[in-house]
TrEMBL record:
GO terms for molecular function: protein methyltransferase activity. Pfam families: Methyltransf_16 (PF10294). Coiled coil: none annotated. It comes from the Eukaryota. This is FAM86 N-terminal domain-containing protein. SUPFAM superfamilies: S-adenosyl-L-methionine-dependent methyltransferases.
Amino acid sequence: MAAEEELGISAPSYLHMVSAFLALEPPDVVISFARDFGGGYITESVQKCIWHHCIAKSDVKWKGAYLKRFLKKFIMEIESSGGVVLDELYEQYASYMISLQDDDASKANSRVLKTISFLFPNESYGTVSCPKSGKLEVQLQCSVNMLEGDTGCSIWPSSLFLSEFILSFPELFANKRCFEVGSGVGLVGICLSYVKASNVILSDGDLSTLANMKVNLELNHLSTGNIKSDSLENHDMVHCVCLPWESASEDNLCSFAPDVILGADIIYNPSCLPHLVRVLTGLLTHEHPNASGPVAYIASVVRNIDTLNYFLALAEKAKLIVTDLTESTEVSNFLPYLRSYNQCSIRLFRICLASKVA
């Protein structure tokens, strides 16, 4: 441990290296941080850090295929630069070669366990959203088959962005009734609970996605409840509801009476957009103690400008005011180690009823 302390395990490069590993970022990304941590070299001390703080603590059931790929690349990187590889790394890789002979077989579970670590800068210490440890770790069971109809169990860029938005501006959500449309893995809901939203209601139209979401809430020590049988006044519980957009009734939508509605990457399918706009309108339309009424925040990657324009046209027809906050809102970068995620690719929209706009 003395060698590790000499390297400085509180250094940003160490935090980025470990966080990237726990988030199952591509091996090349973790290795790049390992080189930064070692001052340009993957030294024996760096290898010991990787061994003790990453590999030895990993559950093969959830990360076996990733561990095998990472160790193969890591060992090759050390050897190609003339370094000496720790015996523990060789032995562990040999063990994986035997026990994980076929990566496809090891993926039969189709789920992996990722840890998303929100890293707060030193100047954030003591603020509402910053924990004493300087980071918030969220465990998420995710799909590895994003292209095979399991999209609801994948982590999408806009959910990462919306989570950073919540942690950047906790005062917008603290003590508010928050409702998320299309909650996926539940990351946004976990962050809402963390910043002390008075009620958190998560919804999705897919039952398998809802089941996975409930697992993730429990992994992060949150109680889950059914809206039909549990009181919304239980602030220690995150409520999960099945809400297919096409069949949601106006009475049902109004009954949720949220202060804030959220959605991440929900503007994507033109055929779904009329239903989505109707759902948003229903959630925004209810008696509210605040004269400005409820508000919705939608984060989205614009993959097709025609789809976005269609959504905007439908929103205007429904008398919704959509404001693009992308340029005027500075969202903190709490995920600097996620090279696969780019804040700049995401747009943030604020939506409210036209009748509530002064």
